[in-house]
Structures are given as structure tokens and as C-alpha cells.
Please model this.
Amino acid sequence: MAESHPPHPTHPIPAPEQADESQTLYVRTDRTLDQELHIESHAPYLKVWAGLAFFTAIEYFYAHIFKDMLFTLILGLLFWAVIKASMVGWYFMHLKFEGRWVYFMLIPAGILAMILTLALVPDLAMQPITEENPEEETVFSAPLEPGAASPALPT
Amino acid sequence: MAHAAPPTDPELARHVTPAARTTIQHPPVTPGKVAMWLFLATEIMFFTGLIGSYIVLRAGSPPTAYSNLYPPGTDLRDLQDTRGVILKSAGPNRSRVIAVLRTEAGLDEHEAEHLLDSLPHGVAYGIPKDKADALHDALNAAGAEAEVEGLKAYHWPKPYDTQTNPLSIDLTAFNTFILICSSVTMVLALSAFQRDDRRKGSIFLLATVLIGSTFLSIQVYEYYQLMFGHHYPPGISATGHFRPDVSLFASCFFTMTGFHGAHVTGGVILLTCIFIQSLRGIFTRHNFSTVELAGLYWHFVDLVWIILFTVVYLM
Model:
């Protein structure tokens, strides 16, 4: 597995700040690439995997426990899902190792995705009160009062 | 002043230019990587559109769209006093319960047997109170555990509610774990090629293909059970089968998970091709960008599933 593999390459690689300034840019950058490869190829992937499995289990039990508390359920599940998605992006998709350039693509996409979602708010939270949409109840249980599903409309 | 040397052959093959190599602290910015991230940005928008539509449809669904006793979309206004009988367990005398189900509930032997194999399950729906009480008493007298339920309505099926929601969270939680495992084998394959360990790289690629195929197989099994294998209570579907046309929830479910499944299928085909290429030993410490780009796609598919599992199954 990645963690148990001997370090590569076998000769020590100077840190960028230790590199000889007289060397060409090519040599400096090539060594940095080596270092990056070394770091990337020895990232703690199995620990991340264990973390993802752990958070999936947490999510599963959380949903089971709070299945009847909608607000708590949604808030908690979104929290766990964001943690898991961030772990996948940060470690497996190598956002941890990439330069800033990748965020020039991700941030606009993220902003547009957020705008798209926010643009839907009028459809989510500002619905007109209709016969099929009584504002006071979302769930009712038997025995229902006659006409409970069709409350008097505002006059 | 140092000057950039011309790119070497392996760098030309990976489209690494001297300008690209001037990024000192990070891996080189290759055209392939930029293209893949741009593609993933469009995929973010695509899945955001799907999830956004799901949220709007769910939030806008009327509070009486789903109920425990009647098919989705039924007008419940004149049915508020009706009852249903839910069989929780058959008890020690299975044959007596089957006899009651045949005589009192009008089921044939095959239907009764099938019903007892998938408890808890509704026995009768939308019947008057006195008839529900009579059936309840007969079942309890036969040693079964049954309950009379009144009408309950919801604006959207709740997770774990077997009367309105047919989705198996246990199975899908396991499938989520499977996909996470495929993600880790994918990143280990890339890590192996970066260390020039080609044999391990190929093995991890093969593992990713196999685990990804397992995920797909489980999803196909789930679809089969939903659409053909199981007979669900009327609160889920009027026909007894959960198919895209039975409710808004069903069409949302199949659209979102179907598109994700198509992405996984594409990923498995792509990774199979890359695995076959890897057997020829072409991926090395100096040439792994194909594996890296395929890995980015695969991890994105995993990331999307993490969100879909949460939004569609658990909420």
C-alpha cells in the first residue's frame, strides 16, 4: 500500500528554498515536480478511505435516529455530506496539491451553482397558498376533520 | 537569469511546456488537466440543475400528494375515514395467518405467501373502520401481530417509511461504501504509477473496474427489485411496482440515479480501456496523465454519489 512503500526517489531531494540559484529553471522545476510526485504518491489515502467509511456509517445512523425531525435531519446530513465530499476533493482529486489555477474554474462553477440554487428560492419558499397547499399543516393523521385537506381559502 | 530548457520527449508527450513548468510549488498545469477540470465544472452545473429541480419539485409537492393507504396523487378529501391493516409479524402459526388472509382479505395463496415474506406489509387498504377492525381481530386471533392504521398524508415519501418509500437505505449505504472503496483503489493506482510500480498500478486499476462494476450490478439489482421484483403497497404505487411513471418521486429518483449510473458506466468502460493499456506497460512515473485524468472523473462521480445518496435516499 502507499504508506508502506519506501520513499521515492532514493536520493534526497532539496526543498525548493534550498535549490541552487545558479541552476537553470528547468532543473529547479523538475526537482519540484519530483517532490510533488513524492508527496502525492505517499498521501495518506487509506486513512482518508477509513474516514469516508466512518462518516458514511455516521450518516447512516444519524438518518435513522433523526428520521422524524426534518430540520435536524437535513442540517446534519448536509454537514456530513459536505465533509465527505471535501475529503474526496481535497485528497483523492488532489486539490490539496494543485495550484491556484484550478480554483479559477471551480469557484465560478460553484458561484453559478449557488446562483442557480438561490434563484429557485421563490419556487421553494414563496409558494402561493392554494387549495392543495394549506399553510398550517404538512402532515395530518386520521381521523381527519372533514375538509382538512381543503381548508377554507383566505377571503 | 535562468532560462527554461526545451521540453523533453516525455514532457512533450504529456503536453508539458516550459511555461507550464514555471509553477514551482505545484504539479504542472497540463492542457489535459485544464480540459478535465473545465469538463467537471460543466458537470457540476449539470448535477446542480438536477438536484435543484428535485428540490423545487419536492418543496412544491402538495401536502396530500402521498399517503399510506392510497396511490400517489389520489384525492383524499372523501377518504379521510378509511383505514388500512398492517401486518407486522406472522407469529408462530404461518398457515393459519395465510388462511385468514385468503378468507378475510381475499388474497390467493401465492399473494399471501409473498406478503408474509416481506413483512411489515399492508394487508388491506382504504377499507371502512368496522371491516378493518374485523380483519385485525381475525389476524391477531391467528397469532399474528397486526395494526389498524388511519389515513396519513405526506407531501413527499419519508425515508424508512415502508408504506410510501420503497428505497432500501441499507442496500444503498453498502453500495455507497463500495463506491468509496473504488475511489481509493483508483487513487492508489495513480500513486503506484507515480512511484513506477506498474504491476501494482495495473492491479489497482483492475480492482477499480471490478468494484465499479459491483456498484453498477447492485444498482441494476435495485432497479429490478423496484420495477419488477417487489410488489409494493398502494402508498408507493397503484400498480404495485415502483416505475418512473408512478409518481413524481419515482421519476425524480430514476432520473437522478439513472444519470449517475450512466456516468459510472462510462467510467467503468474508460477504466477498462486504461487497464488494458496499462498491461502494455505504457504508464510510468513520467507518463501517468491518462490515469490521473480518468481518476479525476472517477472521483467526481464518487463525490456526486455522496450528495445524491444524502439528498435522495436519506432526506
Notes: The CA atoms of residues 90 and 149 of chain A lie 48 Å apart.
